[in-house]
Amino acid sequence: MDENLRHRLYKPALWALTIVLLIVSSTTQTRLNHQRRDLGLTRLEPLENAPPALAFTTVALGGFRGLIANILWVRAMKLQEDDKFFEMVQLSDWITKLQPHFNDVWIFQAWNMAYNVSVKLKDFDQRWRWVRRGIELLRDEGLMYNPSETLLFRELAWLYQHKMGQNMDDAHNYYKNAWANEMSEVLGEEAGPIDYDDWLDPENELAKERIEELKEVYKLDFSLMKEVDEMYGPLEWRLPEAHAIYWAYKGLQYAKREDLVTLRRVIYQTMELAFERGRLIWNEAAEVYELGPNIEMIASCNRAFEDQIETEEDQKVNIKRAHRNFLRMAVEQLFLHNRETAAKKWFDFMKETYPEAVNPPYLTLDQYVVERVTESVKDSAVDQIKSVIESYIGRSYYNLAIGQYDQAEGYKAFAMRCWKRHQAKLEGIDSAQGRVGLPPFSRIDQEVLNRMLDPKQTGLNPVSLQRLKSELGIVDENNPEEENAGNREQTNDSPDVEE
Amino acid sequence: MQSIYTIAKLTIKSALRLKLALILSALLLAGVIGLPLIIKHDGTPDGFMQILLSYTMAMSVSLLSISTLWIACSSISREIDGSQMQMVVVKPVSRWQIWLGKLAGILFMNGALLILSGAVIFSLIQYRANQLPDQTQDYLRNKLLVARGSAKPPVPDYEEEAQKALQQQLDQLPDREKATMNMEVMAAHMVNQIKSSYEQALPGFGKTWVIDLSEAQEDVAGRPIFLRIKFYDFDPKTLYEPLNISTYRCVWRFGHPESPKIYQTAMMSLAANTYHEIVVPPDRLDDEGKLYIEFYSDAEKPLYFQFSDGIEALYREGGFAMNFFRGQVIIFLWIALLAIIGLAASSFLSFPVASFVAASILIIGFSGGVLTDVVEQGAALGPVDHETGMRQKGTLDYVVVPFFTVLLKMVNLALDYNPVESISSGRSVTWREMFKAVTTIGIIMGGAISTFGMVVFSRREMALPQNSD
Question: Which end of chain A is less congested by CB atoms within 10 angstroms, N or C?
Answer without folding.
Answer: N
